[in-house]
Design brief:
Length: about 110
């Protein structure tokens, strides 16, 4: 409990990544058309495998529409407010290692 309380004083999570997993039905592009939820799950598994999930560390979340589906799939990392577009698990692995673990945004994937 002390860890969660201490983390709460620092914003609870060090970093938080939200994946747009929106699925539109009106013919417009949506992130889920590009497999966003599967890539979110891959990110979540990668964070767990490194023991980086939980209070004071990294949180991976599914989000509804982030209104950038035309650039999708997209995700955003807070507290930095860095937006990404990605295409495969290798891109997600690079975001995990460079940004979520190392604190350095992946410039080639930024939008």
């Amino acid at each position: 409990m002390a860890d969660a309380k201490q983390a709460g004083n620092a914003g609870f999570y060090q970093r938080h990544i939200f994946f747009c997993c929106n699925q539109r039905t009106d013919g417009r592009a949506s992130c889920e058309d590009c497999g966003a939820d599967a890539l979110r799950a891959h990110c979540k598994d990668a964070i767990k495998a490194r023991g980086l999930n939980g209070a004071g560390q990294v949180r991976v979340n599914k989000a509804g529409c982030l209104d950038r589906c035309d650039l999708g799939p997209v995700a955003v990392v807070y507290p930095e407010g860095v937006w990404y577009s990605f295409v495969d698990e290798q891109d997600i692995d690079e975001i995990v290692e460079s940004h979520l673990v190392g604190g350095v945004p992946v410039e080639r994937l930024r939008i």
